[in-house]
Amino acid sequence: MEHTVPTDNQLIEEIRQGRADALETLVSRYETKVYNLAYRMLGNKEDAEDVLQDTFLNVVRSLGGFQARSSFSTWLYRVATNAALTRLRQKSRREKSEGEFLDEVYSVKEAAHSETGLVDWSDNPAKQLLDVEARQVMKEAIDELPEIYRVVFVLRDVQGLPATEVAEVLDLSVPAVKSRLHRARLYLRNRLSDYFTKETD
Predict the structure, then answer these.
(1) For a FRET experiment, which of 80, 102, 152, 153 has its CA 20 to 30 Å from that of 36?
(2) Domains of the chain
(3) CB 83 within 8 A of CB 55
(4) Is 96 helix (H, G, I), strand (E, B) or coil?
(5) 53: part of which helix (H) or strand (E)?
(6) What is the pLDDT of residues 105-139, one digit of tens each?
(7) pLDDT at 31
(8) Contact assessment for residue 83 and residue 51, using Cβ atoms and an 8 Å cutoff
(9) Which ranges of the chain have pLDDT less than 70?
(10) Nearest to 179 by CA among 140, 151, 152
């Protein structure tokens, strides 16, 4: 007899009926994605593990109110994103203000139209960073993004969610998502241009 993989909604119904194994299945299905999101947002393993735990605790507490108006994965990303943003705001480090960030973005636009310009290393930089050094450079650059740009970049370019789902997770319009993503990519392109120039010399 062929074994059928239960859907998220089937697992949720089983969890509501008290099936602990269904919860374990649901957690194992999504824990890596939630952890990766949290790690990219917060930059260290300890915070990412705390967000992972907080996310699934919040899911269990709130599962009774899940109405399936959106997919479970979208709802889970919303819970995880909120948990990551809450922890990020609790951290004491100073991040760039949005004004400082936008100043740098617009300076990138000017540089891109100059004779020297910037190295065009991709519209999706995350996929280009394969070695340890490059991943560390990218991590530091993502950490510099203001949270409203970081979360869009992480959800869209790192986690691979479509823009429509990112918009639903963050309660934004699709044009707002695309605008923030464009600015984040421009900033990262500028921030990492020196690294890729060195690599291609």
Answers:
(1) 102
(2) 8-90 (1.10.1740.10), 98-200 (1.10.10.10)
(3) yes
(4) coil
(5) helix 45-62
(6) 554 444 344 334 444 444 445 555 456 677 788 88
(7) 96
(8) yes
(9) 1-3, 92-132, 194-201
(10) 152
